[in-house]
Design brief:
With about 500 residues, this protein is mainly alpha-helical. About 70% of the residues lie in helices and about 5% in strands. The protein has 14 helices and eight strands. The strands form three sheets. Strands 1-3-2 form a three-stranded antiparallel β-sheet, with helices on one face. A hairpin with a 2-residue loop joins strand 4 and strand 5. The termini are far apart.
């Protein structure tokens, strides 16, 4: 029992000793933590003090710089104010000096005016004295003398004026003849000298003589069908690679030529096919005739012409008069009339209109017995043309009396063109401008790299960048360009738009 008690006392003493040791260690660790915290606090305090000092020095330096900058600005403002004050002082001195100069000049002018007034008074006194002396010597009143002098001057002026008027009239007669000749000569010189002659035979070229047999057909049935459908004599002889089409009517001859071209290209040649092709060709040619008339009016700048008159103008393309193409002749007469009307100060548009329509009586659908001038006048009246235009058409061969100044111009222009057949040539400047406008129109589209107008402006070749323009877009772009040309530009005939898109890959072997 005592042993157990001893052991218990020993264990309790060990536990107490351990607790004491633990307390001592905890106190030592606490003291160490406090000491470390105090050291760290001192370090932080020193750092903050240093940072505060640095911040203070920075603020102090910034403040000193701001004060220096403000002082510098104030000094600059003071310098500017001082310079302005100096400049104003100089200007005030200059103004004062000018005022003194002006005052001196004013005094001098006043003195000169006084002297001039005195001299004027002296001159009036002298003139009155001389008039009195002259009146005393001549025994006439001054008013009577003035009237006699004026009458004498009037008689002398009237005599001189009559002589002068006579000279002017003589000179005007000479100048009138000279100017009239000058206008006619200039008008002739300003048109082209090409000659258009048509005959009654057209040549249809073929690739080989084998085609002749196909055109003739079995027992000549094809050639007979062609002649019956077109009214044209078809001559197939030994001429190599050519067939002759003979007819007095150029329109029928053109229908036969176009029909044969389509038949040969298609390869199917038999009577039923021939009649079908000829019918289609006639309709196509009628449309082309109407389009030719419309384009001619656009080319000449003539507006408001009735569709029937336009169609008759287009028919002129296939009619000749004494070896001269009627449409080219009418265009030339229209331009000559316009030039002479401009020289004489008359209505240019009316003169051009009368010149184009003056031979409209040569291309009617029916052939009446009336002279072509009278018939043309009646046709123009029927389609609402102005009386001046109708009179010019009817009077250009003196069948009726002329009632306006446009009529003799049409007669003279018709004689000039008939004596020297030719076609109008486009002025170089306007031709170049039209070509440039055509190219610039295409270059305005995105993706177009180059544009060239070739064949005198009848074809526009457009090169596009393959990266920006696809195949589908190329078709759309070509159509858009053609539509824009058609709506925005004026040109004879038609313009073919060829768009080229190609991909090029270039590399170099070194």
């Amino acid at each position: 029992m005592d042993i157990i008690i001893g052991i218990g006392i020993g264990l309790a003493g060990g536990i107490v000793f351990a607790i004491i040791i633990q307390n001592v260690l905890l106190k030592s660790r606490r003291d160490q933590v406090l000491k470390d915290a105090e050291n760290e606090g001192e370090t932080i305090k020193k750092d903050k003090i240093l940072q505060a000092k640095e911040k203070f020095l920075q603020l102090k330096e910034s403040h000193e710089n701001a004060m220096k900058d403000r002082e510098r600005k104030m000094q600059s403002a003071e310098d500017r104010a001082r310079n302005k004050e100096k400049s104003l002082s100089q200007k005030m001195e200059e103004v004062t000096r000018k005022e003194k100069t002006l005052q001196n000049q004013q005094k001098e002018l006043e003195e000169k005016i006084q002297i001039a007034d005195l001299k004027s008074q002296e001159l009036e006194k002298m003139q009155s004295k001389r008039v009195a002396e002259l009146s005393k010597i001549s025994g006439m009143d001054p008013e009577d003398a003035k009237k006699q002098l004026m009458e004498a001057l009037k008689d002398e002026a009237r005599t001189d004026a009559m002589a002068h008027i006579k000279d002017i009239v003589e000179e005007a007669k000479l100048n009138a003849n000279r100017e009239a000749k000058k206008i006619v000569i200039q008008t002739i010189q300003r048109v082209a000298h090409e000659q258009s002659i048509e005959n009654s035979v057209s040549v249809f070229n073929i690739d080989s003589d084998e085609v002749k047999g196909r055109i003739i057909g079995r027992e000549g049935r094809n050639i007979r069908a062609l002649e019956a459908a077109t009214g044209v004599e078809i001559v197939v002889d030994d001429t190599p690679e050519a067939i002759l089409l003979s007819c007095f009517d150029p329109i029928r001859r053109e229908i036969a030529r176009l029909s044969m071209h389509q038949l040969v290209s298609d390869g199917r040649i038999h009577p039923a096919r021939i009649e079908e092709v000829v019918a289609k060709t006639k309709k196509s040619l009628d449309d082309e005739i109407a389009e030719t008339g419309r384009r001619t009016c656009i080319d000449l700048g003539i507006h408001g012409l009735s569709p029937e008159l336009m169609r008759m103008v287009g028919r002129m393309k296939y009619r000749s008069s004494y070896g001269q193409n009627l449409l080219q002749h009418s265009r030339e007469v229209a331009n000559i009339c316009a030039i002479m009307a401009a020289e004489l100060g008359l209505n240019v548009k009316l003169a051009k209109r009368a010149g184009l329509l003056h031979d409209i009586g040569k291309v009617p659908d029916e052939e009446p017995e009336l002279p072509h001038a009278i018939l043309g006048m009646k046709i123009a009246e029927k389609h609402g043309e102005k009386p001046d235009v109708c009179n010019a058409i009817g009077a250009h061969h003196d069948e009726i009396e002329m009632t306006n100044l446009i009529s003799p111009l049409v007669q003279v222009a018709d004689a000039i063109s008939g004596a020297r057949p030719g076609a109008r040539r486009e002025i170089v400047e306007s031709y170049i401008k039209r070509i440039k406008d055509l190219e610039n129109l295409a270059l305005g589209y995105e993706g177009v790299s180059k544009a060239y107008a070739i064949q005198a402006g009848r074809e526009l070749r457009v090169l596009v960048e393959s990266e920006k323009v696809s195949d589908q877009k190329a078709d759309e772009l070509s159509f858009a360009i053609s539509q824009k040309i058609q709506t925005e530009m004026t040109y004879p005939g038609q313009v073919k738009v060829t768009l080229i898109r190609e991909k090029r890959s270039v590399n170099y072997a070194k």
